[in-house]
Design a protein that fits this description.
The chain has two helices and 37 strands. With 496 residues, it is mainly beta. Mean pLDDT is 77; it is low at 348-496.
Length: 496
């Protein structure tokens, strides 16, 4: 089994379900949401500094951004840039590595979001300005907005339907001027259709220029979604679209608009990942208005007469036309329906023993540690290998964990011998779990153990010994240190 970096003790396999999308998703930002149900936070550093993501080749490190890491409440939200998720695949995967007390924070938010993203606002801050994760520094300045509210993804901003506003200074990265495509996305939880019955989600529009996305026409069924792209003319001339479907009030919805000037000068609208039927579907004509001097407003318009009423989260602007497959996959990713978490793999401790000819057995000593305050249990771990010229011929294991002063908690003794199988891998040995006796010490005692040994010849005179250790008990540990003749095997501690 390959292992990306021996300094990391654990990993999980994250498998993507793109079976419903007939498109390769390239440089796709996936949301990895961790909870106590799919991740043991005790095995990672306090702020997730040791988290790493590696592509399926178990070699290529991936860019990622931690939006939130909360060890106390056992929740984390991490965005990972995946190079490609294959069309209609349910088997593409990456690895998540963790468990390295010496690791430093390695996240790279700017490069997690591919170049088409002009702005990415997570709206995760409880106070202060609103940073942009895209690397384009489109920071928002808030006025009156209630920050730090519970969002669809971590936190969100609340707008009061009266006068709240977030202002982002104009920048070419969020202009429609000079572009023939534009995509805007957001999560919203509308309480009504807001100020003037035309509450803005985002707005970068002036007279005959720019674009906006809003909710309107509150009714029993909720509110509709509307978007406009403005063109230069003597009279009102817009590419305009309004959904026939209404969104339920006081519920979270993922909304998006896509504009493609090269296609038909029309706008597509999406709600919860699905392309919508439109009751208004008007194409623009002429030349796109120049919005290069227009600030972008979140939750209002520049005149402060269209205040949103409700919560807004995770806004993005892109200078391309995102496909319906991409938008659907984004919705699935942000609702926990895109990733399956595999079980936890413990690290194989691997070392080239350099065996050739007859070699004395290699020894590896171990001590078993518990959290009962007694410190060291008694114990030992022994491996023997010898090479008679044709690979690994014998392997032995002895292990016991015993008396803490109040009886025997666990005991195992086993000796295994394997003959030469004549292949690259000579043996794979799996002892049974420890026999246990409950002495009232509870979960602090090591209650189960799995040790796997794999030996073989990986080239002339080269053998490899691997050990995997797992335990059902939390808080304890096993320290592996070289014994006599095992100087090529590094000392390391595996936390259980």
């Amino acid at each position: 089994m390959s292992w990306w970096n021996s300094s990391w003790s654990y990993r999980k396999k994250l498998t993507f379900d793109n079976s419903g999308q007939s498109e390769n998703l390239v440089n796709f930002p996936v949301l990895v949401a961790l909870t106590d149900a799919n991740f043991n936070f005790a095995k990672a550093k306090d702020n997730g500094e040791d988290i790493r993501f590696v592509d399926g080749d178990d070699s290529t490190e991936l860019k990622y951004e931690i939006e939130k890491w909360d060890k106390t409440n056992e929740k984390a939200y991490i965005w990972v840039k995946v190079p490609q998720i294959d069309s209609e695949s349910s088997t593409d995967y990456i690895y998540m590595y963790y468990g390295n007390s010496g690791a430093s924070d390695n996240q790279d938010a700017d490069n997690t979001w591919e170049a088409h993203y002009g702005a990415v606002w997570h709206l995760k801050e409880a106070s202060g300005t609103t940073p942009d994760s895209s690397g384009n520094s489109n920071t928002g300045t808030v006025s009156g907005v209630t920050q730090g509210q519970t969002g669809q993804i971590h936190l969100a901003h609340s707008y009061d339907g009266v006068d709240d506003i977030t202002t982002v200074q104009e920048d070419p990265s969020i202009d429609i001027t000079g572009n023939t495509y534009l995509t805007g996305e957001a999560w919203i939880k509308p309480a009504s259709d807001g100020e003037g019955d035309l509450a803005r989600i985002l707005d970068k529009a002036g007279a005959y220029l720019g674009y906006f996305l809003l909710v309107r026409e509150e009714d029993v069924g909720g509110v509709k979604l509307r978007a406009q792209i403005r063109f230069i003319t003597d009279t009102a001339n817009y590419a305009s679209a309004t959904t026939s479907t209404r969104m339920t009030l006081n519920a979270w919805h993922y909304v998006a608009f896509v504009f493609n000037e090269n296609s038909d000068n029309k706008i597509q609208l999406y709600i919860d990942g699905d392309l919508q039927n439109l009751e208004i579907d008007t194409a623009g004509t002429g030349t796109l208005g120049d919005d290069s001097g227009q600030d972008l407003i979140i939750g209002n318009n520049a005149d402060q007469t269209r205040t949103f009423d409700g919560l807004i989260d995770e806004i993005r602007i892109s200078d391309n036309a995102r496909s319906n497959k991409w938008i659907k996959a984004q919705y699935l990713s942000m609702t926990g329906a895109f990733i399956t978490f595999g079980g936890e793999d413990g690290q194989f401790i691997s070392s080239d023993l350099g065996l050739g000819g007859e070699v004395a057995p290699t020894l590896l000593a171990a001590s078993l540690v518990s959290d009962t305050g007694s410190g060291l249990d008694i114990g030992g771990l022994w491996f023997g290998v010898s090479d008679l010229g044709s690979g690994l011929d014998t392997a032995g294991l002895w292990l016991e964990a015993g008396d803490l002063g109040s009886g025997v908690e666990a005991l195992i003794a086993r000796l295994l011998a394997v003959g030469d199988a004549g292949s690259a891998v000579e043996a794979s040995l799996f002892p049974e779990a420890l026999a246990t006796v409950d002495s009232g010490l509870g979960a602090d005692v090591l209650v189960s153990l799995l040790v796997a040994i794999t030996g073989g010849e990986e080239g002339s005179g080269s053998d490899r010994l691997r050990v995997k250790i797992e335990s059902a008990a939390k808080g304890g540990g096993m320290r592996l240190t070289p014994g006599t003749g095992a100087t090529s095997i590094p000392s390391r501690e595996v936390h259980l």
